[in-house]
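[[Per-residue structure]]
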Amino acid sequence: MSTLICPIELSCAVPEADAPAQRAMLEALLDWTLRLGGRGELAEFTLDGEVRCFLWEGKKRALPVAHSDRRVKTDFVMLQKHRREAALKYVPRKAPVLRCACGTATAPTAVACSSCERDFTAPIGIESRPKDDESLRPLRTRLVKLNVPLPKNDVYFANVFRPRNAFEALTYEELLPRFEFETTDPRELRRRIELLTEVETWPKRYSPPGLLDESSFASWCASLRTLTKPSTRKPLERLAREQGHRFKEIAAVAPWAPGWLAARDVSGSSVPGSYRFEQVKQALDFLRRLAGAKVALSAEFLGVLQHVAPDLVTAKEQKLHEQELDRRALSDGTGFGDYLKRRSAKAKSQAHALAAVLAEAGSPDAKGSAPSARVNLARAVVEWLVEGRRPELKDIEGDWLVEQFEALKRAKRLPKAILESAERARLHPAPFGLTGARCWDVQPGRLSAADLKARAACPECNRRVKPSRVLHIPSLDAGMEARTVRLYECEPCDRSLLFARAVKPARAPKTPARVFVEYRDAAALKKPFPKGFVPWRYERFLSRQHEGHSLALQIGGLPLLPEEHDPALDMDLRCGHPFVRVRIHTRALDLQPGFGGGAVVGGVCLTPGCKKPDVRNVRDD
């Protein structure tokens, strides 16, 4: 090539098979030079053959000319001579010979050694790795340069390297020790893989009747805690008898060690890397116990042994089991009814036992983080004394408790703290004089033919869709006119947008709206609290306001806390009239299931005489 300023010469020698591709590249370069106003020459020859020349000049492209033509400025014959001399002197580099650890030369693509039969595709496990991940950057760069695929999770987090041939296996073998990787012995890795693969078959081979079909061994071990029938004993004893020699190996697994994580990645086991490994070890102890071994069990599996094989439980373990049951009953209420029966068996009577438990509970109004089962029992007594409410406690029959409360009341054995709490509850009933805001709840009606014809355009895609729900709001108060509110969801938009439309009803709705007073949550109340205020009684008063009723369209009431601080949630209506706040409870109305339910805030026009009443919500903009 040459330009008006300075010529540029490119020359190369390539194998005959690569010559067409090289010529195409040079011709494209010369075409570009010609478009830029330059000129060029191209010669093609074998080291001992004829020189063929071509010109790029003016408007001519690849014009064939003789090498002796005066328009050819380059002495291609001399260039041919120099290339031939260089080719004769060239000594090709010897290709590196790959050798297996046994010393036998092997091809880069071989998958096994011809001498020692080593499998070059066997996974390479990492027993330990360098602490500094940044030191592995040169290793990554080297693997990329050698076209060796990076392992899963990259070299920074990989627990296992999977070579595909001899070149990759021997490359890993050379590079990994340089970067402070310690590899697992292949026989040890193979042993771990076989062990983990074997245990994952146990849930299907030895699963007792009635147990859920668990896909992983770790989940299966955790589910053994739910066994309650003696019929499950036989298959578990067979498992302990046939596989008991492997239990110590499984218990010796280091669940977060890189070597065991490598075996997990190959076998697909659920044991290494599992947060349930402690439960796996407890389950193995339980199985060993069924086989006759004298090992201590955890509290949970001691309870399982009590149901499955009670003849194996010692007197000391029986006592420990009862203590654990008592602890759980008093902490979270699980089995609290059985706890009361055990206390009754040790006391003079059921009344004496229940009175002792209530005395241990202390004051029902005592402040604390999470109330114990005894405190909840004391509070149930207070509500029964004041309101006659039937107790509702976990794992206890309410009618039986009422009989016991009546017996304690007749015997005058109710603790003084409970009687004082009940007296305070009579003097200061919830809501303790706090003021709320009146609101209404409107339930959805049946979609009529007129409602189904009232299609509305989706604000997102402009498709006209049918309403999903219709709510008929009666005249609620002075200055509030009846309305029909239709709620829409667009299926093509995956119900992601909820919008509403309001119209005047053709006739006044007959179904009245439920009226109630909404109060602040206990956490939202500000000090000082009203006289006689007791948090637990106030919270239960709020939770029981809507017993048997699920809110659908809530009109009025207190503003939500975000609304007090975010005026953007108060949207102007298109009709120009002031809005009445509404909350659309989407969970109760089965709207927008992908959004997880909750309440959507909006506003509706209830102004009498409005010709085009509007309704909007925060998702309808």
